[in-house]
Specification:
Order of helices and strands: HEEEEEEEEHH
Signal peptide: 1-21
CATH architecture of the largest domain: Sandwich
Shape: elongated
Number of strands: 8
Largest sheet: 4 strands, mixed
Distance between the termini: 23 Å
CATH topology of the largest domain: Immunoglobulin-like
Keywords: Membrane, Signal, Transmembrane, Transmembrane helix
CATH superfamily of the largest domain: Immunoglobulins
Transmembrane segments: 131-153
Number of helices: 3
Strand content: 25-35%
Structural class: alpha+beta
Helix content: 25-40%
Strand order of the largest sheet: 5-2-1-8
Protein name: Putative cytoplasmic membrane protein CbiL
CATH class of the largest domain: Mainly Beta
Length: 160
């Protein structure tokens, strides 16, 4: 009967893909006039219509209050115009308690606006945060390893 329980738990855990947690990620950069970026989840879906706030680090009058706030668009992009200088911390609060923080990267202002370099940086950032199949298989391997260790210890205890 115990074997049936373990098999049932194993089968249910393998088919519960909708319950896999996802993280909220943030890409932000500052060019002197505005903070731009994109918010997305670990499955690369955009964090649409999500509130974004920017805080000035170091020289702000009140570090508790944001200097500018806004919302992401339907594709997760945002633009926050700023009038002060300095490093900025960008915070995004998503639904269900998701939250991401990042210090905006300072980049040189380009005459063309959004250049190929900025797009490349965003693509690299997204690839770094993506969940790959080997990550999932590695996690399943850890679970099986812990289960095997538990079974080994239990078998030793029953032998004695």
């Amino acid at each position: 009967m115990k074997v049936v329980r373990y098999l049932l738990v194993l089968v249910l855990s393998l088919f519960s893909f909708q319950a896999i947690a996802h993280n909220l990620y943030l890409f932000a950069q500052y060019d002197g006039d505005e903070i731009t970026g994109r918010a997305y989840y670990s499955d690369q879906s955009p964090a649409a219509e999500t509130y974004v706030e920017a805080y000035q680090l170091g020289m702000g009058d009140n570090p508790e209050l944001p200097i500018v706030s806004g919302k992401t668009d339907s594709s997760g992009h945002f633009v926050l115009p700023v009038t002060t200088t300095g490093p900025f911390k960008v915070v995004i609060d998503g639904p269900e308690g998701h939250r991401a923080e990042r210090v905006a990267d300072n980049i040189a202002k380009r005459a063309m606006g959004r250049s190929e370099f900025e797009l490349l940086r965003e693509d690299l950032h997204k690839l770094k945060d993506k969940i790959y199949l080997y990550d999932i298989l590695g996690g399943i391997g850890y679970i099986f390893g812990l289960f095997g260790l538990f079974a080994l210890l239990k078998a030793k205890r029953e032998k004695q």
